[in-house]
Design a protein that fits this description.
By secondary structure, the chain is an alpha/beta fold. It has 2 domains: 320 residues, ABC transporter transmembrane region fold (Up-down Bundle), CATH 1.20.1560; 247 residues, Rossmann fold (3-Layer(aba) Sandwich). Strands 6-9-10-3-11-12 form a 6-stranded mixed β-sheet. Strands 2-1-4-5 form a 4-stranded antiparallel β-sheet, with no helix packed on it. The protein has a two-stranded antiparallel ribbon with strand order 7-8. A hairpin with a 2-residue loop joins β4 and β5. α6 runs parallel beside α10. It is elongated and about 120 Å long.
Length: 588
């Protein structure tokens, strides 16, 4: 727990001043509150009972000023605590999000999207509430408890012993409650991850859900997870509900016992404080009893909040402490000489626990400016192969060289600036078409964006939109077709003006004519850029300088279209199923 507190403590930063001032103001507030019962006792004993009106007025004014001072310090403490806790939460979210941005793909694979979202929202909110409580109640409660006990023993040690008897009862009760509740809260936060995952899947695949009329199934799935959270939370809250009756039992018992024994002491002394207990001292003892028990109640609330937030803190620290397994070397290379790519005895697997290698003994030599086609069956590791070029993953053995230099020796950002990847799963962000294109180059002019769109064969359909390049794209690009989305993503990649361009099955949703036009534009406009084209269609790669045939993580064959038709049975089989089969059908 100490390690977690230390790690999260680093997120306070610029809010240290507010975090220190809040407890200071709380301390002053408590001092004023503890003084008030003493002032009231003095007013009763020396003013009301003696009929001294002047003394009553003076003490009344002092009481009023003390109450106002307590109020002012309380308001100031609340303001500083709110600033500190909100700022603390802001810094935690910022640090978590920043660290996630630095993750490699293998790091991201460890956490689900739903889990990261829950940690950034629900878990951080729990920590924020706990922190605000810590710098207010965790200061207020102990000070009030200790000072009230000391003053009570100073007034009448015998009656003050009643408090000492109530404290163990409360402590045991709170310990039992907290130990039963903590595991439940820990389980609930994991269930929240599942809930977010169900909602995310449903919204992301809403078209599929409606197409297959599976709304009822998704509703039931959501209800099951929601009911599980309800049951856990309701059980935890019912257990925590014993906290209040226990507090009230101790509070009323102490008040009753103090009143009983105090009244007997007053009667026995004839109201003479020097002989026993005065009326004003009894009133102050009852108020201190209330303060002590309220302080204990605050301690119990703090304890419960800490129990709740502990699970959240552990989940947050997991995100903060996760280090990217892809890091820059001490003296990285910042310039990529050219787009040549060499694979030397490369082997790779996503997990060290995997029984089988995804890539095994890969050797390739691609010259700068060449067009390389990659073809193979599903699961043959085509995408895995090209993911090693921009160092999205690191090889298990061997080396990948770009421009004659091992990719592990480059500055990661400098390398990826020169390698543009249009992934198999295209993603557009909410904003205009120009906003999306400028993800490739934030400083690109309108003319450069239009030129890149023309090269990607996207300009024709963009010009048909009412707002043209200022057309707003919905989140995920839901208001454009799959082929349009692919062409915009290609244009975005071209704006980087990379030395290496990787198209990972990114023309699968466009027709063959548009596909051919894109490849023709590449040959004419960017001849010096090395192009990797992963495709399922032979027509997309048949004019490439080299075609790599992948089979089960190995290179089955390398050559041009004519050579592979003669030497590769896999390539010939794919070609015949796509081309010759089509010709036979047309003749029939």
């Amino acid at each position: 727990m100490g390690k977690i507190i230390k790690r999260l403590g680093c997120c306070v930063r610029e809010y240290k001043k507010a975090s220190i001032l809040a407890p200071v103001y709380v301390t002053l507030e408590v001092i004023m509150e503890v003084v008030i019962p003493l002032l009231m006792a003095s007013m009763i004993d020396n003013g009301i009972e003696k009929g001294d009106m002047k003394y009553i007025i003076v003490m009344g004014i002092v009481l009023f000023l003390s109450s106002v001072a307590s109020l002012i310090f309380g308001v100031m403490a609340g303001n500083k605590a709110a600033d500190a806790s909100a700022g603390f939460a802001k810094n935690i979210r910022k640090d978590m999000y920043y660290n996630v941005q630095n993750y490699s793909f293998s790091n991201i694979d460890k956490f689900s999207t739903a889990s990261i979202v829950t940690r950034l929202t629900t878990d951080v909110t729990n920590i924020q509430n706990a922190y605000q409580m810590m710098i207010r109640m965790a200061v207020r409660a102990p000070i009030m408890l200790v000072v009230s006990l000391v003053v009570s023993f100073g007034i009448h040690a015998g009656l003050a012993c009643i408090f000492a008897g109530a404290i163990p009862v409360l402590a045991i009760g709170l310990y039992i409650i907290s130990t039963r509740v903590h595991p439940v809260f820990k389980r609930v936060f994991k269930t929240y991850d599942k809930l977010n995952n169900v909602v995310q899947e449903n919204l992301h695949g809403i078209r599929v859900v409606k197409s297959f009329v599976r709304e009822d199934y998704e509703i039931n799935k959501f209800e099951n997870i929601s009911n599980q959270i309800y049951k856990d939370f309701s059980w935890a809250e019912k257990t925590l509900a014993f906290n209040m009756p226990l507090m009230q039992f101790c509070m009323y018992s102490c008040t009753l016992l103090i009143s009983w024994f105090g009244a007997k002491a007053i009667v026995a002394s004839g109201g003479n404080a020097s002989l026993g207990l005065s009326t004003g001292e009894l009133v102050s003892l009852i108020q201190y009893a209330t303060m002590i028990l309220m302080a204990l109640m605050m301690c119990s609330m703090i304890f419960v909040m800490v129990v709740m937030s502990r699970a959240s803190a552990e989940r947050i620290v997991e995100i903060l402490d996760e280090e990217s397994d892809i890091k820059d070397v001490e003296a990285p290379v910042y310039e990529v000489p050219d787009g040549s790519v060499v694979f030397e005895n490369v082997s790779f697997q996503y997990s060290g626990k995997a029984d089988k290698l995804c890539l095994e003994n890969i050797n390739l030599d691609i010259k700068s400016g060449e067009t390389v086609g990659i073809i193979g069956g599903t699961g043959s590791s085509k995408s895995t192969l090209v993911n090693l070029i921009p160092r999205l993953y690191d090889v298990k053995s061997g080396s990948v060289k770009v421009g004659g230099i091992d990719v592990r020796n480059y500055d990661i950002e400098a390398l990826r600036q020169q390698v543009a990847v249009v992934l198999q799963k295209n993603e557009l962000f909410s904003g205009t078409i120009l906003d999306n294109l400028r993800w490739g180059n934030e400083n690109a002019t309108d003319e450069e964006c239009i030129e890149a769109a023309k090269l990607a064969q996207a300009d024709d359909f963009v010009q048909k939109f009412h707002d043209k390049y200022n057309t707003y794209i919905e989140q995920g690009g839901t208001n454009v077709s799959g082929g349009q989305k692919q062409r915009l993503c290609i244009a975005r990649a071209l704006l980087k003006k990379p030395k290496i361009l990787i198209l990972d099955d990114s023309t699968s949703a466009v027709d063959t004519k548009t596909d051919a036009l894109i490849r023709m534009a590449f040959r004419e406009k960017i001849p010096n850029t090395t192009k990797f084209i992963i495709a399922q269609r032979v027509s997309s790669v048949e004019d490439a300088d080299k075609i790599i045939v992948m089979d089960d993580g190995r290179i089955s064959a390398v050559g041009n279209h004519k050579e592979l038709l003669e030497t590769s049975s896999i390539y010939r089989e794919v070609y015949e199923s796509q081309v010759k089969g089509g010709d036979d059908n047309e003749k029939q």
